[in-house]
Amino acid sequence: MNKVWLIIQREFLIRVRKKSFLIATIIVPLIIPAVIGGLVTIMIKEAESAKADTVMVVDESGVFNLDSTKNTKRFLFVPLQMPLEQAKKVYNETKDFALLYVPKFEVAKPEGFVIYTQENPSIEKIGDLEGLLGDRIRDLKLQEYKIDKEILKNLKTNVSLKQINLSKTGEEKSGNAGILYVLGFVLGILIYIFVLVYGIQIMQGVIDEKTSKVVEVIVSSVKPFQLMLGKILGIAAVGVLQFLIWIVLITFLSSGVLAYFGLKMPQKQAMEQVTKKMQQNEDVKQAMDQQNVKINEILGHIGEIPFTKIAFVFVFFFVGGYLLYGALFAAVGSAVESMQESQQFQFPITMPLLIGYFGLFMFILRDPHGTVSFWLSIIPFTSPVAMVGRIAFDVPNWQLALSMILLIAGFILTTWIAGRIYRVGILMTGTKVNWKVMAKWFMMRE
Amino acid sequence: MEPLLVKGVTKQYAEHKALDNVSITIPEQSIFGLLGPNGAGKTTLIRIINQIINSDSGEVLVFGEKLKPQHVEIIGYLPEERGLYKKMKVGDQLLYLAQLKGLSRKDALARIKVWLEKFEIKDWWNKKVEDLSKGMAQKVQFISTVLHEPKLIILDEPFSGFDPVNAELITEKILELKANGSTIIFSTHRMETVESLCDHIALINKSKKILEGPKKSVKEQYRSNTFLVEHRGNHFALPSEKYELKKQSVIEDGLFSSTIQAKGDIKGNQLIRDLIDLTEVYSFQEKLPSMADIFISLVKGEGDDALKKHLQEA
Fold first, then answer.
1. A446 at the B interface (CB within 8 A)?
2. How many angstroms away from the CA of A124 is the closest CA of chain B?
3. More confident residue, B118 or A392
4. Residue A27 burial (CB count, 10 A)
C-alpha cells in the first residue's frame, strides 16, 4: 500500500508541476468570465450604438402609410411617391438601409412584398420588418372581420403553470423544469468531459511507460496492479484538484466580472430594471408585479434545489465514473504501443459513456422518470452521466442507492478485468493486438 | 545458504514452453553467467525470479526462503531493455526507484549522493533523462539497480551501450559489489565477458538447462587432450598409435603451428618429451575450449562427441 502511495504521489506531482496544467487550470476559469464580460460589453455597446435604419417605402397598396409617424426604434420610414423603377434609382444614390416595395395586394393573400438592399441585411432586421407588416395586415383583417382591437387584446391570456411535486409523504415541493434542465445538462456534460479527458491521460501515461521500457523496472519492484491503481488514483487527484480550482476561480472571477458591470446577479438586475420601468409607466405596473412574483418564484426554486445532495451525488459519480472508465483506459494503454494504435479500442470502450451522454438529451432531461431514464441511471456504464443529469429531478433514494452500489461493483469489476489485461500487456511488445488477444491475456494464469 | 535456488521451474505459454523443468543453483558471492541463445527462456526465468511473472510449477528459493513480495527489496534488476522516465530529473528518478525498492527517503538521498559521486556525475541531479546521452542514461540506470544494496543483482546484458571506458568502470563496480558480499547474475551473449568475469555458468537452450557448473570444471569437462605446438622444421613423424596430427599451418618461414591430440591417457609432458627429439619446440600449450566454442557447439545441438570434434578442429 505504501508503494501505491508513492506511485500516486509521482503521478500527481509530475502532472501538477507541468506548465500545461498550470495554464489549463488558470486559463479555463479566465475564459468563462471573459466570455461573460465580453458578451455583456458587446450587448451594452450594441444597445448604445444602435441607430435607426432608414427604409424608403414605395407603397402601391396605400394601406400601410409608412411615414415618419410610424418610425420605430429600429427604422425610420421615408415614403416615396414614385414608381418602383424610379425609386430604385433614388435609393441607389443614397446609403440608406433598404427600399421596401409594397404592391397592391389582397388582404386574404398578402404577397409580392420586396425589399431591396445594398448589403446583405441581417435576418433579425428582415424579421422585424416582416413583423411590422404582418401586424398591420392583421389589423386590416380585424377590420374586415369587424373585430375590435381592444376585445382581441382582452382575449389574449397568459397562463403560467406553477409546478409542484407532490411527494408520497404529502410534502409539497415546487419545481422548475427549466432550472433543473440546465443543471442536469451542465453536470452530465461535465462528467462526460472529465472522464474522457482524464481517461485518455491514464492511457497516455501507460503507453509512455510501456514504450520507454521503464515499466519492467517498476514491475520488478511493485505488482502491475499496484502500478495501474497508483496511476489511476494519482491522475484522479489531479483531476479533482483542477476541478476544485476551477470552481473556486470561476465563482470568484465571474462574480467579479458581473460586479464590474454592476450586475451582481442576473436575477437582481432583472428586478432592478423592472422597478425602473414601473416608475416610468404606471400602466404596466400590474404586469410587472406579476413578473416580479415570477422572478421571486424562480429564486425560490433555486433555493429549494437540494444542492448539498446534488453536490454529494455529483462528486460520487464523478469519481466513480472516472475509476470505472479509467481502468478500461489503462487496459487499452497497456495493450497498444502508440496513441494511434489505441484509436480502434478507444471508441468501443467509450461507447457506453456516449450512450449515457445522448441519453441525457433524448430521455433524461425530457422524461427524467421514464423507463429508459431509469435504466440509464442504474447501469454502471451509463449511470455517471445519466444519474448526475437526473439527480436534480428528485430521484427516489432507493434508486440512487442501487445506482451507487452498482457503480462501485462496476468499477471493481472493470478494475479487475483491466488489471488482468494490464499485467500481461505492459510486458508485451511487437504483438498485433486485437480483442481476441486481449481476451487471451485476461484468461492467462497468474 | 545459496542466494538463489531454482527448482524444477516450468512456464508454459499458450504456444510454447518457455521453461521446461529448469533447476539452477547460484552460489554465494559468485558471478554467475546465465547463457543461452535468444528466445531460450532466460528472460522468462529472470522475470520469474523478479516476481514479474509466476511459474507454473517448481519453486524459487531466495536465501532459503520461498519467493515472496519482500524479496524485491534484496534483488536488483537491470533489464536488457533499458528505460527510465524521460521527463523526470535524474535525482527524482533515482529517489523514486529507490523508494519503490523499500528505502526510506532519507537513506535513498544519502546513497544517491554517494553513487553520483562515485560516477563523478554529481551535477546531473537536475538534468532530465531525455537530455542525457544513451551512455549517460545507462549509468543512471545502473545506479538505480544497485542503490538499495541488493544481495542479489541480476544484470541483463550490462555492457551494451557502454563505451570501453565506461564498461571498465562498470566492471570495476560490479567486482566491488561482489567483494562487498553481493551475488551477481549475468545474462549475456558476450563470451569475452563470461571468460573474464564469470566463475559459474549455466546454459539454457530451447527452454531446458543443458549445462551448469563452475566455469573451470565446465572447461575441464570439455577438455580433449589437444595441444598447440609451435615448432621449427616440420619433418617429423609422431608415432601414430599415440598421437594424431589434427592440423598444421605455417606461421612464417620455417616456423609451424601444429594441433596435436594425444590418444588414451597420454599427458602433455609425454608429448613434450616425444617432440623434443623430433623438432625444435618454440611454444607449447594445452588447447582448452573457449566458452564461445562450448556455447556454439552445444546450442547447435551436437552431442558430446561432436562437440569434442568441433573443439579439436577449432
1. yes
2. 55
3. B118
4. 10
Contact B52 A427 (CB under 8 A): yes
Q: What is the tens place of the pLDDT at every residue in B57-78?
A: 999 999 999 989 889 899 999 9
Q: Is A16 on the interface with B (CB under 8 A)?
A: no
Cβ of residue B144 closer than 8 Å to a chain A Cβ: yes
Start-to-end Cα distance in chain B = 40
pLDDT < 50 stretches in chain A: 174, 264-265, 267, 283-284
Diameter over CA atoms, chain B: 76
- For residue B35, the cross-strand partners are B203
> Which among B14, B54, B101 has the least Cβ separation from residue A221?
B101
8 A C-beta contact, residue B65 and residue A186 = no
> Would you say B105 and A11 are in contact if contact means Cβ atoms under 8 Å apart?
no
Burial class (CB in 10 A: 0-12, 13-18, 19+), B86: middle
Among chain A residues, CA nearest to B44: A427
Asked if A14 has any chain B CB less than 8 Å from its own CB, the reply is yes
Query: What is the Cα gyration radius of chain B?
Result: 24
Q: B280 phi and psi, to 5 degrees?
A: -90, 110
Which positions 201-240 of A are in contact with B (Cβ < 8 Å)? Answer: 208-209, 212-224
Amino acid at A159: V
pLDDT in tens, A101-141: 888 887 778 888 888 888 777 777 788 888 888 888 888 88
- Report how far residue B72's alpha carbon sits from residue B74's, in angstroms, rounded to the nearest whole number: 6
Query: Which stretches within A360-396 are classed as H helix?
Result: 371-378, 383-391
pLDDT digits over B274-302, tens only?
A: 888 888 888 888 888 888 888 887 887 65
The grid coordinates listed for A334 are: 497497456
* pLDDT for B158: 87
| Greater model confidence, A368 or B125 | B125
Judge: B52–A215 Cβ closer than 8 Å, yes or no: no
Bridge pairing between strands A98-102 and A53-59 = parallel
B8 backbone φψ class: left, alpha, beta (φ>0; ψ -120 to 50): left
For residue A412, which phi and psi values (nearest 5 degrees)? Answer: -65, -40
Helix, strand, coil percentages for chain B (3-state, nearest 5): 35, 30, 35
CATH number of this structure's domain A52-155, picked from the four choices 3.40.190.10, 3.20.20.150, 3.40.1080.10, 2.40.128.590: 3.40.190.10
Between chains, do B47 and A3 touch, taking CB under 8 Å as contact?
A: no
Q: Are strands B226-232 and B255-262 parallel, antiparallel or unpaired?
A: antiparallel
Give the number of residues written for chain A: 446
Q: Which three cell numbers stand for residue A409?
A: 461493483
Which one has a higher pLDDT value, B310 or A406? A406
Q: What is the DSSP letter of B208?
A: E
Of A293, A284, A195, the C-alpha closest to A243 is A195
Placement of cell 448526475 in the chain: A388
**Which amino acid type is present at position B44?**
T
B216: closest CA of chain A, how far (Å): 33
Domain boundaries defined on chain A: 52-155, 184-249+300-443
Cβ partners under 8 Å of residue A287, min gap 6 = none
> How many whole angstroms separate alpha carbon A317 and alpha carbon A100?
59
ipTM: 0.82
Which pLDDT does position B48 carry in this prediction?
92
Sign, CA dihedral A113-A118-A124-A128, equals negative
Which chain B residue lies closest to A4 (C-alpha atoms)? B100
Best residue of B67, B78, B85, B87 to probe chain A, by most A CBs closer than 10 Å: B85
